[in-house]
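W.,

You were right to be curious about this one. When I first looked at the sequence I had no strong expectations either way, so I just let the prediction run and decided to look at it fresh. Below is the sequence, 327 residues in total, followed by the output.
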Amino acid sequence: MTILVTGSAGHLGEALMRVLRRAGRPARGIDIKASDFTDHVGSVADPAFVRHAVRGVRAVIHAATLHKPHVATHGYCEFVETNIAGTLHLLEAAADASVDAFVFTSTTSAFGSALTPAPGAPAAWITEDVTPIPRNIYGVSKVAAEGLCELFARRHRLPVVVLRTSRFFPEADDDPEVRGRYETENAQANELLYRRADIEDVVSAHLAALEKAKEIGFGRYIVSAPTPLTPDDLACLRTDAARVVLRHFPECETLYAARGWKLFPSIDRVYVSASAMASLGWRPKYDFAHVLRCLRRGEDFRSPLAREIGSKGYHDTVFAEGPYPVG
């Protein structure tokens, strides 16, 4: 079964292509950029190119997108053309070809303002039941594309799974305050408590979704490292997150001190991936407990796949004030 992977020159697309090729599974990569993992160069915004790319495939993983870091450098129309119209072209071609599965890579950024509680309120417990309140064109475009996915599943019987992925990029944080106070590794280890996943686990979630799509028909799932935090922790997370974490992981204090690392003083949201694990049979391996085991052994907590791909960035330009601009 040939699998079409869009965005094959990007971080997730390359990861998917690497894993599929190593497993001996036929895969076709498309992207606007040439790469070792791109078989056809073109845009998902071009319906003729998309129809040619879908020809002969039995499944689609649609990872190509303009991301949050592009908000400051690309216009609204470009987000509409790539993230919404591009998704529509792929859905139409996939439905016409009667593919067995369509997996759409969305984002937890789609939740937008729902992720930020009011001052004094507990941290937000983010499940699939939370209603998105997009705060920029990136979020708007991904929510619209998710709606198209659901439409094609309901009206055209196309098996579709939407995965709202949390952070998995290796670049430093876009917030200069976070970059200034925490080493990148330290910040990303902290995020595995509540808002991050390793790229290897993100890939395995996509492949699990491919296998389950026909059975599910349509599903939307959060993909993030399993959190050790609970609803009972939410109030304290806003005011003293370190105390909560140390209650769950007493050994963290010594292990962090040995590296000169710090826990975040406050956590404002917790992504819950229990539904993805239950419905997809997804078994992520890289969580905060894994981080602590690696610190104990003096090992890198990132997966081999994450280390292999490294940082790819989002722009060809180098910016003076950070890894990318944020609008």
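Here's what jumped out at me. The CA atoms of residues 55 and 97 lie 7 Å apart. And, maybe more interesting for your project: The chain has one domain: 3-309.

Coffee later to discuss?

I.
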